[in-house]
Structures are given as structure tokens and as C-alpha cells.
Amino acid sequence: MDKQQQTELEAAAFRRLVKHLDGRKDVQNIDLMILAGFCRNCLSKWYKAAADEQNVDISYEDACEQVYGMPYAEWKANHQQKATPEQLAAFDKIKKPE
Fold first, then answer.
1. Span 5-16, mean pLDDT?
2. The CATH number of the domain where 14 resides is what?
């Protein structure tokens, strides 16, 4: 596999991940953080960092829109639920292991 093929495969995998997450709006970012240690916001930050490394001018808000498929504020208003006490406790536990 050459470098171009590798890049194209990585890009396709990223697009598939974003599409998968888009189909699972019921899965909250806090759930992803608890289970996997990353969330949609992390992907947005990584996207922005990659753009910065390539000297591509993109705002964090635009990076979020690439991941969320809409402005983050809109996604938050339509899909983000208030974290439950159980979710907050689980998140606290992964941040501060016993």
C-alpha cells in the first residue's frame, strides 16, 4: 500500500466513524468518554489539530460541524441530554482512579 492509499483508507474510516456516531445520537458524549476515553468533541479537536498541522484555516466550530453534521450548539440543543448522577459518578471515577 502506498502513502496515498493509506491516507484514503484512513479518511474513509474517519468518515465511517462519523457516520456511525451520527446514527447513534442516543449515545451521549459522556458515555463515550466513560467507555472509550474520547468523544465527538475529542474528534473535533483532533480534526482541528490536523488542519492546523497542515496550515489549513478552520475554526474549532467548523471542525465540530464536520463531526456533528451540524453546528455544535444545534446538536447540543436537539440531542444532548443532561448527564445523570450515575454518568457523572462513572466519569468522575475514570478521571480519578481509586
1. 96
2. 1.10.3340.10
